[in-house]
Design goal:
Blueprint: H1 13-20, H2 22-25, H3 28-40, H4 56-71, H5 77-89, H6 93-118, H7 123-151, H8 161-172, H9 180-189, H10 192-219, H11 222-244
Helix pairs in contact: 4-5, 4-6, 7-11, 8-9, 8-10
Length: 246
């Protein structure tokens, strides 16, 4: 059975985030789901290369999941993963050896395929491929920041004057396709008096946002605020590093 079919037994874990809040995001079961879903995503990039193989534990979970779920249909997905993790921890060295051996074989095969693939890349492609881990980390950090802000119910950043103009124009057009270039040109040609309405609205929204943000900051746990700040700093540093590598 394909390793990635394990994900089918974990999809219901998404529900636990809504029910259990931030604690669900920190659980081993959720991290496993996130890992599997991330690895399952198809990447059509010509620079992708061969996929990394699963480790011994994931091989064990992949093999045991179908039978375990059949025998324990009453268990929730997170309970299944928790129990499989416990089963893995009590395996003897001899019982683990088969999975460890298979994982090593898969790893050797992967390294050979990876090296062969890299040898076919041009210098430009190799440079782009070397940036891929940074891009991946940046995307992951942005996703985590977005999820955490939603979980903590952080106030939404208000729209600026031009964005308000675009939103209003889009609504007036009947929700048709947006022509940003045309709207930008129209905005540039507008008189200051015409823009004043949107500028005023944006300023008022910003003032409300500032008050809401101050109130929100006071009631949110400092640990979560620190995590948000760490993510923002990481995103800024990764973005700067990627710009410098161009």
């Amino acid at each position: 059975m394909s390793f990635f079919r394990v994900q089918k037994g974990l999809q219901a874990l998404q529900i636990s985030v809504g029910k259990n809040g931030l604690s669900a995001l920190d659980s081993p079961a959720w991290r496993l789901l996130a890992t599997i879903r991330q690895q399952k995503k198809e990447d059509t990039s010509p620079l992708k290369g061969p996929k990394r193989p699963p480790n011994a534990y994931f091989l064990f979970v992949s093999e045991m999941m179908p039978t375990f779920r059949t025998k324990n249909p009453e268990l929730k997905p997170n309970e299944v993963i928790k129990q499989l993790g416990a089963n893995w921890r009590v395996l003897s060295d001899k019982e683990r050896e088969a999975y460890v051996k298979k994982a090593k074989e898969e790893s050797k095969r992967y390294i050979a395929l990876r090296d062969a693939f890299i040898s076919t890349l041009t210098p430009e492609q190799l440079k782009e491929k070397q940036k891929m881990p940074l891009v991946k980390t940046l995307k992951r950090s942005k996703r985590e920041l977005h999820v955490l802000e939603k979980q903590l119910e952080k106030p939404n950043v208000p729209l600026r004057s031009f964005s308000l103009f675009v939103k209003e124009s889009h609504a007036a057009s009947g929700k048709g396709p947006l022509d940003i270039a045309m709207l930008a040109e129209k905005w540039r040609s507008m008189a200051d008096e015409q823009k004043k309405l949107y500028v005023t609205k944006a300023k008022e929204s910003q003032e409300v946002y500032n008050k809401n943000l101050e109130s929100w900051t006071k009631r949110v746990d400092q640990t979560h605020l620190q995590r948000l700040n760490d993510l923002k700093l990481s995103i800024a540093m990764l973005t700067q590093k990627l710009r410098g590598s161009k």
